Amino acid sequence: MTDTTAIDALLRALADPTRRAVFERIVGATEITVVELTRGSGVTQGAVSQHLKSLKLAGLVAERPEGRKVYYRAEPEGLKPLVDWMSHYGLFWRESFDNLRALLKEIDP
Asked: What is the CA radius of gyration of the chain?
């Protein structure tokens, strides 16, 4: 059984389009600071920090302080509960496509 609390946190974190954009920028970088994330994002540094907090609580990012800067990086394992949950539906889709394939062969042999 999958952990629904973790899945709920992931879906909530990724539901916000700005937060998804922040996450995608982090994924595209090895490490990135709040200042770098804010630059060109169209949102304030405070808003980026709030989005980072949500992503961190969901397990999607980790931080590494160095002096006065904090570097953020993506945590691939953070998506595991969601991937596990979605894999339960893989069987449904495979069966559905198999049924569709059989139906199409019936219609047009």
From this structure: 19
pLDDT of residue 4: 78
SS3 of residue 32 by DSSP: strand
The CATH number linked to 58 is 1.10.10.10
Q: Which domain holds residue 93?
A: 4-107
- Tell me the C-alpha distance between 42 and 30, whole Å: 22
Domain count, the chain: 1
**Which of 25, 23, 5 has its CA nearest to residue 15?**
23
pLDDT at 74: 97
Q: State the average pLDDT over residues 82-95.
A: 81
Quick one: 72 exposed, middle or buried, by C-beta within 10 A (0-12, 13-18, 19+)? buried
